[in-house]
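Task: fold both queries, return tokens.
Query 1:
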Amino acid sequence: MPPNKKFKYDDSFIQFGFIVINSGGEEKPQCVLCHNVLESSSLKPCKLKRHLETNHSSLQHKGVDFFQRQGQTLKNFRLDGTGMFFKENVAGLKASYEVSREIAIAKKPHTIGEQLILPCCKIIMSNLLGNSELEKLKQVSLSNNSVMRRIADMSNNILLQVVSKMYNSKFKFFSIQLDETTDVANLAQLCVYVRYVHEKQLEDEFLFCEPLDTTTKAKDIFNKVDRFFRLYDLRWEHVIGVCTDGAPAMLGCRSGFQTLVKEKSPNAIGTHCILHRQALMVKTMPDKLSCVLTTMAVKGKSSEKSLPFKKEIQEFLRDRKPELHSTFTDNSFLMLLAFSVDIFESVNFVNLALQGKEINALHSHEKLTAFNTKIVMWRSKLEKKNFAPFPELDQFLDDNELEANDDIIEVMKQHMFILKSNEIQEEFIDMINDGGAKLLHRDMSCSDFWIEMGQSYPNLSKMALKVLVPFVTTYECEAAFSTLLNIKNKYRHRLDVVHDMRVALSKTKPNIDELIAAKQVHPSH
């Protein structure tokens, strides 16, 4: 027997009052008057005309325009994906998700959607499009509970995407940085970022920010991270780097967090945040120089701002605080103050260079090596009484026709020695590559280069990335705490910030279409 013949709908069938509907993968005719769906074998002009004449004889002489209007109305009220009802509600649900995401990114209260955004949209639409269009806004739900649910949905979607990237990475290993702080409700919050290789680049991504339920001891912090790892099937042996601050709970040699991590992953690199180490280094200085800075700090003056207004400050102290006037007119004091301004300007420059996202060990090593080289040069200049590297000090000596005595220079040299002795040593892998690889290295960042070399030199690439992937600062956690303060303030002190923080800080965008597809579309959702 020949195969069953398939009939196709023709646009001319509308003259008989029929449109097409897909059912079970087949095209079937649907009457626009009684809404009955006929078999696909009825897709013949004679059968469609017979239905019109038999069932709707009073309307058989209506024109094509009449049947087209009836057909469009029927299409609009279909509940499947082709109906206007479905499309409008999907559009409203998508708008609700996207506005909720913007609310989270802006760190605003969830109530702002219903209290401010929606009323403003109504004002704009009524003025530009007329009141007839306001009905469409009813499809967009921005109530407090709706916004909260949208943010939670997007947060979970983002987290699953991040975990999936970690699973599917060519290099299975990753590193974490973590820090803890206390929020406005006096609740300890633990923040964790992760760095991994995704496709052909390194990615830094927010992992979670959750409260510590008991204390902030190393064991509590480890248990919190361990529970998260077990929940999402992340393995400790894949952790190759852990960066924390210098608190005993983090760096304790017997029971610190890094020690507990190394029990699970012996090859993990434990890093003390370079920014914190630099801050500790700068605090160490000779007594005389420390005394100068303490004097300025106690009196509420910034050394950088005080020096240009030396004369004004001297006049003020002479009239208001004579006991301090002699200190601020002492040339030795002012020389050390000028020296401090120059030194801290250089330190601040290095500190800013170490801050930011995607900072790795090689970048930090370059900046610190350059700074230490400068220190050696500055020390040799001081021995020759050459103050050119210290512009504020040099200008002060020239303006007042003064010379720094040996005692003052010795204090400065001592500070140079202290800075140099705190040099941060890092171990790096010798880069061995061929001529073609050298050309690539010239045009690519260091991390991108070694990821690219993964196929040609898999073992060497893996070794190099184990140096590049670990964090060297906790900058991103520190920046996240600023977001925490904005989201959870005294007016929202009971808020659970887990989902808001992830949506606000993640680089990964939520797959809103996937979320909509998983929902039953209804304006109350």
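Query 1 returned. Query 2:
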Amino acid sequence: MTEDTAIEILPMIREDDFGTLEMQHLLFAISKFFPMIIYVNLTKNSYKMLEYGRYTTKTSPIGGVFDELIENGIASVDPLHKKIFYNTFSRESLIKAYAKGETSVVLEVRQLGDDGIYRWVKVTVIFLTNQENDDVIEITLTRPIIQEKARELESIRLRSIFEMTMLAHYEYITLVDIKTGLFEQYAGNGSNSHRVPVIGDYDRWMKFIRDTLVPAAEREAYYQQARLANVVNSVKNNGRYAFRYRINDTPEQRWREVVYHYYEPEEKILLTVRDIHDDVLAEQAKRIEEKYWRNKERQQILTGLGLDIIIDLDLLTLEAEIMGDAKSFLQRDLIFVNFPHGEVNAGMIHPEDVDTVVKAFDSMYNTSEIDNKTFSVDFRFKRGSGVDFWCRCKAVILRDERGKPYRCLCKLMDIDDQKTREQKLLEKAERDLLTGLYNNITTQMLCEDFFSNEGAASRHALMVVDIDNFKHVNDNWGHKTGDKLLRRIAETFNMTFRVSDIIGRVGGDEFVIVLKNINSIEEIQDRVNALQKNIMEINLEEAGEQYTAYCSVGVGLFPEHGRTYTEVFHVADEALYYIKEHGKNGVKLYDESM
């Protein structure tokens, strides 16, 4: 007899079969698979344990009231599973399941053992045939599934790694068997830049890449890093290993990064390769820029040249000496009355920077420390022409022997170009390069910050939006057309929602939108209706085939469904899954009955 056979036989058993010799033999056979077997009359709220010798039963008697048995069961399961355990196995829930025509109910939970450790068990309720009366009868089977769950969790872990890598548009995703030294490609972007086969010997093909693609001067260094012995040693020690190299697939010898992840249970290594040429160029440009500004500052300090100005302000007489061409630099006169408060009152400092500037100076003026400490503050200053520009004020407050400030030395520098470049680099880091929307990390950070601070006392909706049948576009028309569709979708989001809302791309065709300060569920529905209408107006045509865009939307509410981004995203994602499973092209607000 197998486990599946036992489960198939039980529904055919009648109540009056119990007590027969044949039934005793059957229960003995089934007990090999299920250490705990309980006979339950749901209508009479009673139970009797038919098999329990090899299972923990310390908290419940052999027979008694079923509701009390469930209470003991709730007390013994993992706190995270208590709610679902009750919702699944309470007498009311089981009777409802029977009334719906279900033949069995199954749940996997973690249960506390005699040793105080939670372990996974599988609980199966099978409804029995009852021809004698209207009583609802069932058999409950329980068995440990520790090994199966461990394998499942490891499988999920490996699958998660693959899904994460697929989102990053890697050139190669390859699995290397440490024992055999063989590799097998699992996915990639189709470029075949390294001319590597689907299956092969790892070290052999690393030598091929070294000898045919890597620039001659860099070949030995490449192979020393890439050879399997070095990779295995590195990933076993650190779990992860990565290095950069160049290949001659194009005239400019583009940079790549290879990353290895150790998959211990199977003694395998997950290898990913991606093109990082643009990132390397950006890093090099940033280093050159930083070097330029260091040299410029050094030159100004040594020679006193440039547009920077020095202000020597007497805090007792408010007389000031200015060194440098302040007229050209500021295109206006400074006030110097209670510096910088006079400049603030005259509107010379940008409103968003006033608090920063005032607090910086006041903290230095009001401290009782005698040491003369230098500080720096960046802010936007309004020139006489009315144009704001970024400047940096480096200042030191000089104090007498009692700690009273009597003099302020300030150096004002024009850093407008630098700030502009930094802002562009910051936006590039925060934005998804394809759509221009916030990327996954930035979206999460913005939402967490908003939920914790500005939006903590209000109501908001988090929508997870998935483009229906997007895979069809990529598979049939190619990634260029898919990218074009994603850009059109992003434009539609920006057109449909407010500037104050948070809009981000968190996956291939998955987006998150936070509608701030909503007043009603109807408001959410109106926004979603407008979104779906606008998206349906996106039409693509390729090779005589037309595609009309549709989307599915899952919605979670803050604070009803959670007070963190992770919590609200989780319920919205469950609602999205529900709508995808029930026909797509719709919207679902999360509720616990799903």
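Both queries returned. Flag for query 2: The CA atoms of residues 108 and 405 lie 71 Å apart.
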